[in-house]
Design goal:
By secondary structure, the chain is mainly α. 64% of the residues lie in helices and 0% in strands. The protein contains 14 helices and no strands. The protein has helices at 35-40, 54-67, 73-85, 92-103, 122-135, 138-154, 158-175, 178-194, 198-215, 218-235, 242-254, 262-275, 278-291, 298-312. Helix 4 runs parallel beside helix 6 (138-154), helix 7 (158-175) runs antiparallel to helix 8 (178-194) and helix 8 (178-194) packs antiparallel against helix 9. The longest helix has 18 residues, at 158-175. It is elongated and about 70 Å long.
Length: 316
């Protein structure tokens, strides 16, 4: 399964207008700082009581003094969400700080395991994303959007994740960031794959593979091909798995140093289980867990559950 955006786990085909998320209710805080401050993502050096940002900055300064930024991150994020709900004008530097806090909570991996601090993280990330979009803050848009779709992904809110990815895709195309387009296209398909929408996901992964072939190296091409192979197996590959097995073993060579090879090892384990070769299947899933060791992704939990089920299965 670099933060801007994260490498893909999870391209045209019916990507319509990329399921544009549309507008969401709630107040917008517009950042009208001087251009040099905006580009540096800094607020005014010494805001005065007349400053449009003074109220928000005073509230955030009080939060810093009372809670500290990292001492109780849940309380801090609730205060951040309250500031955003208040309708106060918020400077870009403060939004960047909110997003930076959530970057410590939401791992930059596919299907992340996210710590629960008693906060719905979209209450901070979604306003930051919308304000960044309205104010044309590229860095903030990409960072907040990436965290937001990974958060939705971790909650099983795949349609909402796709809507955010769609906006990031449109932005990447507009600025000519073709590697980002490839990554985001692949991740768009990944959301479909997580839902079990195998045919839709396979078509998108095919598109992603073509984009990676034109703009990136063989590892990302192999990763997109691996995702496509998982979908092919679920669609009709179980009827005759040998061709898929051959392709999986070839792709494993390319992904030998990449933790995302776990998906191929699990696929091969499923094929061995289908044949009744449980000991071989167990060995392959054990290797998948070795591959993803230390990665904060829910895929590890899924693989461990699969390993436990294989070990409990009666051998023939």
């Amino acid at each position: 399964m670099k933060q801007l955006p994260t490498r893909s786990e999870s391209t045209g085909c019916g990507l319509s207008p990329w399921e544009s998320a549309g507008s969401r209710p709630g107040p917008l805080a517009f950042d009208d700082l001087p251009l040099d401050s905006l580009l540096g993502m800094q607020s005014a050096a010494t805001p005065t009581p007349a400053s449009q940002f003074a109220a928000a900055e005073a509230a955030w300064a009080a939060t810093r003094r009372t809670d500290g930024i990292d001492h109780d991150i849940g309380t801090t994020l609730r205060h951040a969400a309250g500031t955003l709900r208040s309708g106060l004008a918020v400077p870009a530097s403060m939004l960047a700080e909110f997003v930076g806090l959530l970057g410590k909570v939401i791992p930059a991996v596919p299907l992340p395991l996210v710590a629960d601090h008693g906060v719905a993280y979209e209450t901070v990330l979604d306003p930051c994303f919308r304000i960044a979009r309205a104010g044309h803050h590229q860095r903030l848009l990409i960072e907040s959007g990436t965290l937001l779709y990974r958060w939705y992904e971790s909650c099983g809110r795949y349609s909402e994740a796709r809507s955010v990815i769609a906006e990031l895709l449109a932005n990447a195309r507009q600025r000519g960031g073709w590697v980002d387009v490839a990554v985001l296209t692949n991740n768009y398909g990944y959301e479909y794959m997580l839902e079990g929408e195998w045919s839709s996901a396979e078509r998108i992964f095919a598109r992603a593979g073509g984009l990676f072939a034109a703009h990136d190296g063989p590892v990302e091409v192999a990763n997109a091909a691996s995702n496509r192979l998982l979908c092919a197996y679920e669609i009709d590959g179980r009827l005759s798995p040998e061709p898929i097995e051959r392709q999986a073993r070839e792709l494993l060579v390319v992904l030998a140093g990449d933790w995302r090879r776990r998906k191929l090892l699990v696929l091969l384990a499923q094929i061995e289980e289908q044949r009744g070769h449980l000991a071989d299947a167990v060995s392959l899933v054990e290797k998948s867990l070795e591959a993803s060791h230390g990665v904060a992704t829910r895929h590890r939990h899924d693989d461990r559950r699969y390993l436990d089920s294989l070990r409990r299965a009666p051998s023939e």
